[in-house]
Structure formats: C-alpha cells, structure tokens
Amino acid sequence: MGTDLSITPKPEWHAGLLFDIGLGKHFSVQPSLLYSKRGYKYDYNTQSTSVMNTDTTVTTYVTASVDAKLGYLDIPVLLNYYCGDRKGLMISAGPQLSILVTDQSVATTTTTTSTNGGTPQAKNPETETKFDFHPTDISLVGQVGYKFPSLLLVYVRAATGFAKVQDEEAIVRTGDEGKNFTIEVGAALTFGSK
Prior knowledge:
The protein is mostly beta strands. The protein has no helices and 11 strands.
C-alpha cells in the first residue's frame, strides 16, 4: 500500500481599493477592499494490493486530481510604520478577513485495478466531485512597501490563514496543507489625509 500527494500553487491576481489614513508622522492605518483570486492543484495517488486467493492478486489504484479556483473578498486592516514622514520605506502588519465569493473548483477521481500484475483496467468511470470550501478565513498579513511622495505605493505582502480551506472530509487534512498562504506584489494609488 502506498500514497503520494503533490500540491502545486497557481499564480493569480488581486485588485481593489486601498486607503492610507494618517495617524501622525510615522504611522497610518491601511484598510483595503480587494478581490483576490487564489488557486492550487494537487494530485493524490494511492495504491493497495489484496490477495484474493493463492492464484489471484488485485492491485487497486485511485487517483484524485483537484483544480481549485477560488475568489475571495479580502478586507485587510494594516498598521503601517514609515521610516520617513508618511513616505519612504514602510513595514505593516494586521489581520485580514476573507470571504469566499466564487468557487470554480472541481475534483476528478479515477479508479483502476490490475490483476496479477497485468495492465490496469478502469474499474469505474471517471467521476467529478465538487468540494465544499469554508466560506470565510482569518489571516495574519505582513507587508513591506515603499510610498513615493506622489501617492504611489508599491508593496509585497504575505498572508497566512488560520483555518483549513476545505472541510475535514477532504483529501488534504494534515499539518498546514489546505490552509491559505499567499504572497502578493502590487502597486496602488493611496488616498487619505496626510
């Protein structure tokens, strides 16, 4: 008996509104409203062998391929610290609420059997299954950016979710597998009092 799981992240995009509200010379609050696409693929392969009698050994192969295509409404609220007077290098951190708004994910399962080491034959037709994903997630966001004097902001942020994306009966259910982890690179025009 053997099991193999391989997970591949998919590059996606995000867009929305970002506000920079000043709290003095070096601090600001940065609430945002973003639509964020997220996705991943994974293949789950398992193999089991059964001895039917002294002359017959049956090996069963099950392959599940999952293509997750999710869209979230992200609401991060970050506290920014600027090295300059509300411009220049900035370091940010804060919570983020994510609400699942689109789900175009599908899982395909194929089962084949091999008798006495012969060529695997399809046991059942290929089936497609929809997974249930949690409707919300809470994340911790860390960000490094640079704010130019002309209101342009560039940033790199990482967000790690606290909950699993899929329900417990899904294939991925151990360790940190199945949790949202995103790295975003972006540029924005910021608005707010200086």
